Every structure is written in structure tokens, then in C-alpha cells.
Amino acid sequence: MSSTKVPDGAANIRAGRIEQHGTDHVSNSERHGSPRELFAVWAGSNVIYLYFLLGGILVLLGLDVWQALAVVVAGNLLFTGVGFLAISGPPAGVPSEVIGRSFYGVRGNRAVNVAVGWLVGVLYEAINLSVGALVGFTLVRWFTPDAPDWVKAGLVIGLAVVTFTISVYGHATILKVSKWVTWALLAGIAVLAWFVLTHADFAYRPEGGALSGPELWATAAAGFTIIASAPLSWQVGADYSRYLPEDSSPRRVAFWTALGGFVPAVVIGSLGVLAGTVVDMSVPEESMAAILPSWFYPVFLLVVVVGSITNNAVTAYSTGLALMAAGVRWKRSVTVVFDAVIAVSITLYALFVSDFLGTVSGLLEVSIAVLAPAMGIYAVDILLRRNRYDGIALQDERRAGPNWFRGGWNPAGCTALLFGAVVTALCVNTTFYTGPLSAALGGADVSPIVGLLLGGGLYALLARRSIRTTGLARAERADADRATATA
Q: What is the pLDDT of residue 145?
């Protein structure tokens, strides 16, 4: 059983007090809030520079304006999947990192949390810190042109202190900060949109001519994978919905979560596409000065820096939970500090010693081979269990517990993830690796679709009978026990 204790429930629901909950179950007495609050959490954490860069990449790939905009919308539709996964939070009362025990087993879930939940999350933290520091350095040099390079290190450490402090304080503080920051960031993006729209070339065509036929579809598929990689990495919706009352509407939870991610991702990605028609998107933090007035350019850079903070605060909160769910017996706040040390170390190495950031980006490109089937498995598990999770039972890590399965591994989930990842990897087309199936399709990267369908479909075939005969029956008994206790 989990050893985490909650000495003071008020610390979990008040901003400015360090949250005491880790991966343990949130009791009904501590449930509060409305699904609408999730919009600010997800919108604030997705007003990020990355989407601007991704939109610009689509233009660099050779797509015209309307093709690129269509890819931005299509790829970000996977935020509906992020919203759907979030509905598991209120009934379970535990984070996504723990719910995974139901489809991977206790030991299997630990392995997945280390390889996917923690490692991928820390790499994203390092990239965000790098982007924040580089753009922050551009901002410093706007006012002090002779600023030395060591200022970058100071910016990395400063951004990390602010970011990870928010994460240490936890859920309630993240909610409060999100409410303050989200609208300010969206206002900045609205002003940016005005200047981009007034300069954009809507008739833009690539220098080499418009793509058509197989080449167009291959390029569009590659662009779709690039855009889809962002929502696929957000499979932690229950981390932020678990504090909602147990009877919260699943539709509202899914809607506000998905909308919070989808709107800023589409808007910012589209602005990146349009900006790419008039400026060099290989170094947009510098080239954007050509279309932005001098008074707004530093504001644009500041929006990027603040966006990197809000995104990393949410990411670090979840990576801390992933480390706990992997079996590390530390307090949640300690896991966040540990993550901070690792992320800062990677960032400083990337900025001053090596082009390690390029390697990190490549690893994230390949990570979609695991992320896509993992989302499919999670979504199918929700469907098969009718979103009925016993949060108390999910805390049980004993060998005789309900989530031990075979030696601590659930054959259905682990087989679906492993087989799905292998086949999906054959469909990947990255900057340094092209899978044989992708090559056979003319370079088209169909890994997100293949991974989602294969991982989810195989899990449905393997797990349907066991869930209906054991897990669902257990959930029904737990519902009956609660009804009896209430009566």
C-alpha cells in the first residue's frame, strides 16, 4: 500500500501551501472546484513558443499556407484524446501515473512511468528551459547588446527556480497561477496575431513550387506527426482533474481540458505558419523583429519566456508524480526538486558544451512510437471499464493485490504497448531515422494513427474478457458499498 500520508487536507486545496498529496487517493472531503477550471490549467501551459516553431516548420517543409493550416488543425485534434483521458481523474481520485496500474500492472506501470512519464517529461523540461533561456537572452540583449554569454546560465537557473517552485507548491497553486497568467498570455498572443495577420502573405507558395500527389501526402503526414507529438505527450489529464468532485460531468471534464489545449495550440501554430510566409522561421526569435514594432517585440519575447514557465510547471508536477509511481519513496516536492536538478543539468550541457539539444529533440521525435499506442491503450481501458476506477484499490501494490496480475505485469497492456511501439517505430520518419514502412510509403509518417489504432485495438482484444470478469465486477461492488454506506 502507498505510504504517503496527508497530515493537513487544507494544504492540498489552498494556493500558497505545499500540496501534501502525492500519488495517494484524494478523499471526497478534499474534492472541490468545477471542470471549467481545467481550461486555465491547460490553456496556460500550452501558450508556448514550441507551437509557433512547429507551425513555421510546416512552411519550411514545403507546404503552402492553407495546407499547413489544415495540418495544424488536424494534428491538434488529438487534444480530444487528452480530454478523454482526463475523465478518469474524478472517479479514480488518483493521478494518471497510478491509473496505469490497471492496464500495465504494478511493475509494468513502474517501467512505463520511468521510460515515458519521467524521461520524456524531463527532456521536455530541458527543451523548455533552453528555449526560455535563449529567448530570454535575446530579450536581455535587446536592452543590453553587450550582455555576456554567461547570462544564459543565470537565466536557466532563474527560470528553473520560478518554474519548479510553482510545481513544488502543487495543484492548488498551479490552478491559481494559471488563472492569473493565462489571460495575460492570451492577450499577448492576440496582439501578436494582429501584426502577423497584417504582414502575412496568404498567397504564399514554396520556392520550389507547390507539392502535389504522393509527395504532398508524405509531407502532410510528416507535418501531422510533428504537430500531433505535442498532444500525444499530454497523457496526464487525471493529475489535474482528480481533485474535482467524483460526480463531475465527464463531458465537461473532457471538453474544458481539450479546449484548453486545442485553442492556444491551433492559434499559435497558425501564427507560426503565417509568420513563416514573411520571415525566416529557422531563428524566429530574432527575425520576428522585422514585422513587430519596437515597443511590442520585447513583449513578444516576454510572452515566450512566461509561457515556458507555465508549461514547465505543469510538466514538472507530472514528472514528479511519475517518479513516485515508479516506486521512488520520496515526497512529491522532493521528486520535483530532483527533476529540476536533472533538467537544469541537461539544459546547461546543451547550451554550453554540446549540441545535445539536437539529440534530445531526436529522442522526442522517436518517443511518439511509445506515446501513440500508450494513449490508445489508456483510452480503451476507460471504455472497457466504463470509466469506473477504484482509487483505493489502485493504491494496493501488494503481490496479492488486484493490480499485480502476473508477476506484477499485466500481459494485455504490456503486450499491446510493446507490439504497438515496435510496429509504430517502423512507421516513423524523423530527422535521423526513417522506418521501413514509412520508406515504403514514400516517406509518409503515419505513426500517430498506427500507434493509436494498433495499441488500443490489440489491448481491447487481449483485455476485454479479464476486465469484464474482474475489474468491472470489482468496481460495481465498490459502487454498491459506497451506496450502502451513504444510505
A: 87
